[in-house]
Amino acid sequence: MIRGQAIQLRTVRETDLDRLYPLLTNIATRGDFVPLRIPSEPVFKRQFQETGFWTEDEGRMLIVTPEDDIVGSIWYFKPIHYFDGFEIGYTTFDPQQRGRGIMTEALSLFADYLFQSRNIHRVQLIIAEGNIASEKVAQKCGFTYEGTSRQAMFRSGHYLEMKWYSLLRDEVDACLPHRLFSS
User: Boundaries of each N-acetyltransferase domain copy (predicted)?
Assistant: First the structure.
């Protein structure tokens, strides 16, 4: 478990599955920029049984309150096999929790954890154009804008531009507002 000031990050437990699946698949509360694809419940549970949603190349943690209420999820995956790093995705399940700094703290702690636990040089975010809140989170966590991929994601009947942000290993000390360990 990774403890922050307002939230904690922890791996998914089998007892979370019946609460987590409806949260991940509720299109109404996912936000306007989360891809609409959802797994079937049997596939979702089988993936958990096979990996616990945690391997060397991909993993998911829950963002929980100190009382262990699930408020979001954050995950990493290998975007391109020859990249020396991971892409991070995240979502807040309850729209009432958005805009309160939860995701800034979660992303900061998670990125720091990945750099401390893996021999990688970069983490990246790919954010749909128009997702101002997510761009603010990236900027608060010290990620640098790298460019835009044109019409890279299809959602809600049209293509979206996707903005690339990255954080390099040698930028962590100066950039991340929340750290696992103080320097």
Answer: 7-170
How do residues 48-106 score in pLDDT, each as one tens digit? Answer: 999 999 999 999 999 999 999 999 999 999 998 888 999 999 999 887 777 788 999 99
The 10 Å CB-count burial string (b at 16+, else e) for 98-110 is eeeebbbbbbbbb
Domains of the chain: residue spans and CATH: 2-175 (3.40.630.30)
Q: In what order do the strands lie in the sheet with 70-77?
A: 2-3, 8-11, 58-64, 70-77, 85-92, 122-128, 158-168, 144-155
Angle at 168 between CA 164 and CA 171, to 5 degrees: 120
